[in-house]
Amino acid sequence: MQIHSFGPIVDENSKVLILGSIPGVKSLEKNQYYGHPRNQFWKIIYTMFDEKVEEDYEKKVRFLLTHKIALWDVVKSCYREGSLDSNIKKPEINDFGMLFSKYPNIKFIFFNGSKAEEIFKRKVDKELVRGKQLFRLPSTSPARAISFNEKLKYWMKIKEYLKE
């Protein structure tokens, strides 16, 4: 089945871009990034800033932007059964040239898991990321079997780069 990603969450103040692969089934049903209740993305983001996770999705979006964090997916559309990244077929890539020219303050790109990084590095022109720093973080997906605290330790790196 062909699926499509969401538009970016970004504004002119964004310094950090977090990239996933493409939303899973639950996220697509809810029309929200990281909508699966067992995905640890929102819990990690809020914990990084010592805050309690909001239930309201619009408040979550504002929280990201307030902290200069943009969010998007590498894949614009693809064919996939279920939610596993390993099932992604024929990925079409989002327009990163447009994103980076419109939002030049984005200097740091963090990949939420290895599949997002793999597709990005294979499909996106290296010239588009010249001068930007790229990092892979452990996936927040419930399929990734390391502990919350272990994931959080890696994700805290984002805060360091927001200070620059």
Automatic annotation (TrEMBL):
Matches recorded under InterPro entries: Hypoxan-DNA_Glyclase, Uracil-DNA_glycosylase-like, Uracil-DNA_glycosylase-like_sf
Enzyme Commission (EC) number: 3.2.2.15
Signal sequence residues: none
Domain of life of the organism encoding this protein: Bacteria
Record carries keyword Hydrolase: yes
Pfam family, any one: UDG
Domain Uracil-DNA glycosylase-like: from-to ranges: 7-159
UniProt keyword Hydrolase present: yes
UniProt keywords, alphabetically: Glycosidase, Hydrolase
NCBIfam families (UniProt xref): hypoxanDNAglyco (TIGR04274)
Protein name per Swiss-Prot or TrEMBL: DNA-deoxyinosine glycosylase
Top-level taxonomy: Bacteria, Bacillati, Bacillota, Tissierellia, Tissierellales
